[in-house]
Amino acid sequence: MTTTLRYVDTYSQALDAAWEALEEAIVKTQELNDQMWQGDVLVRRSPAADVSLLTAKLRELTAEMQTFEVTKEPMASARPLW
User: Fold this and answer.
1) Where are the chain's structural domains?
2) What is the pTM of this model?
3) Which among 20, 21, 61, 78 is most buried, taking Cβ atoms within 10 Å?
4) At a CB cut-off of 8 Å and minimum separation 6, what does 32 contact?
5) Are residues 2 and 9 in contact, defined by beta-carbon separation less than 8 angstroms?
6) What pLDDT, on a 0 to 100 scale, did the predictor assign at position 36?
7) Tell me: the pLDDT tens digits for 35-68?
């Protein structure tokens, strides 16, 4: 297998794993929120330390995504429709 093909395979696996982990994180956060709310009514409070912990982890993810955003290929220049 060439180096390029190995990179594509490794990149694809990492991309798929990141996607799945983010999807799972969304579902798990929804489940957590479901325990706190009944419809539009707040029925429980979360410990501030727990909220801060998850918020800090989200900031860490946001920083990683900002780094990843820099690697984005430039957009192809749009051609006029006329």
Assistant:
1) 1-45
2) 0.77
3) 61
4) 46
5) no
6) 97
7) 999 999 999 999 999 999 999 999 999 999 999 9
Furthest C-alpha separation in the chain: 59
Tokens of 11: 């990149």
- Cα 74 from Cα 18, distance rounded (Å): 22
What single string gives the DSSP state of each residue in 25-80?
A: HHHHHHHHHHHHEETTEE-----HHHHHHHHHHHHHHHHHHHHHHTTPPPPPPPPP
Is 4 or 34 the better-scoring residue by pLDDT? 34
Q: Locate tokens 């430039």: which residue?
A: 74
Distance in angstroms (rounded) separating the CA atoms of residues 24 and 21: 5
Q: CA-CA distance, 35 to 43, in Å (whole number)?
A: 8
Per-residue pLDDT tens for 19-30? 999 999 999 999
Residue whose tokens read 């983010």 = 22
